[in-house]
């Protein structure tokens, strides 16, 4: 699914077959989750294949590297150009792109890496959480305390928290988890941000314990452009009992409706909700059919 015998990836200065790319089993990253990554999408548009918000994603990759002390010797422009080459060499248009900066050198110390490796892979990937509205449960797992780890950096190790929360929700018969922060406020999903709708306005968690998604920010822009008020404020899960509708956002998931939280169905049909409206606007934006001033 991710690659076949023809797939090429960019790895440390060369385009190599994905099946030939390898990494030391003594790599610092493999043992400690010490690497950072991005999730980006490209879309077929009237102006050819376009990577959506490449600058924002590669600036965040730089921020993540700086935050954990991983060197990254490529500029945002170089990373963008290399990514277009990965797409072209693999004949991809609508694609999911995964850059990974990792410490591949054998090293068992707990000190910042002196050198890093860069992988850029891409593959065709449908909406990560599917197209149907989701049955979500409030997770018993909290998002990491921002005083323990830099939650605004996209660090591989953080995704252990995401993986156990998501697996736990699925094992209990739900589609996805919703995680609270250390103070009991709603934070986000394992790989997506969360919004709810009440009386024609949107609410979402503020920065602090969340990865402030690029999709989240795009949705806030699209909402405000359409005259919809968006509140970035802390809220407890009990307010969701009174909410009209909800949705999640992320590069992989795009915009996906939430049908229920802990079995409580939202009263507004998703197709009539602000989430569905903004989801359509988002699709038009990424495919170049909508151009914002
Ligand atoms: N939160 C988490 C924990 C994520 O992994 C993601 C996916 N990167 C998001 C939010 C959404 O971020 P973005 O919209 O930038 O993809």
UniProtKB/TrEMBL annotation:
Which Pfam families does the protein's record reference? Aminotran_4 (PF01063)
Its required cofactor(s), as named, are: pyridoxal 5'-phosphate
The top EC class is transferase
What EC number(s) are associated with this protein in UniProt? 2.6.1.42
Q: In which pathway does it act?
A: Amino-acid biosynthesis; L-leucine biosynthesis; L-leucine from 3-methyl-2-oxobutanoate: step 4/4; Amino-acid biosynthesis; L-isoleucine biosynthesis; L-isoleucine from 2-oxobutanoate: step 4/4; Amino-acid biosynthesis; L-valine biosynthesis; L-valine from pyruvate: step 4/4
SUPFAM superfamilies per record: D-aminoacid aminotransferase-like PLP-dependent enzymes (SSF56752)
**Per its UniProt entry, which superkingdom is the organism in?**
Bacteria
For whether the record's keyword set contains DNA repair, the answer is no
Keyword list (alphabetical) reads: Amino-acid biosynthesis, Aminotransferase, Branched-chain amino acid biosynthesis, Pyridoxal phosphate, Transferase
| Gene Ontology terms, MF aspect | L-isoleucine-2-oxoglutarate transaminase activity; L-leucine-2-oxoglutarate transaminase activity; L-valine-2-oxoglutarate transaminase activity
Answer yes or no on keyword Amino-acid biosynthesis: yes
Q: Hey, what's the signal peptide range on this chain?
A: none
Q: Which residues form a coiled coil?
A: none
Instruction: List GO terms (cellular component aspect).
Output: cytosol
Reactions accelerated catalytically:
L-leucine + 2-oxoglutarate = 4-methyl-2-oxopentanoate + L-glutamate; L-isoleucine + 2-oxoglutarate = (S)-3-methyl-2-oxopentanoate + L-glutamate; L-valine + 2-oxoglutarate = 3-methyl-2-oxobutanoate + L-glutamate
One Gene Ontology BP term is:
L-valine biosynthetic process
Would you identify the family this protein belongs to, as annotated? Belongs to the class-IV pyridoxal-phosphate-dependent aminotransferase family.
What PANTHER family is this protein classified in? AMINO-ACID AMINOTRANSFERASE, AMINODEOXYCHORISMATE LYASE
Sum up the protein's function in the record's words.
Acts on leucine, isoleucine and valine.
- What's this protein's name? Branched-chain-amino-acid aminotransferase
Gene source species = Pontibacter chinhatensis
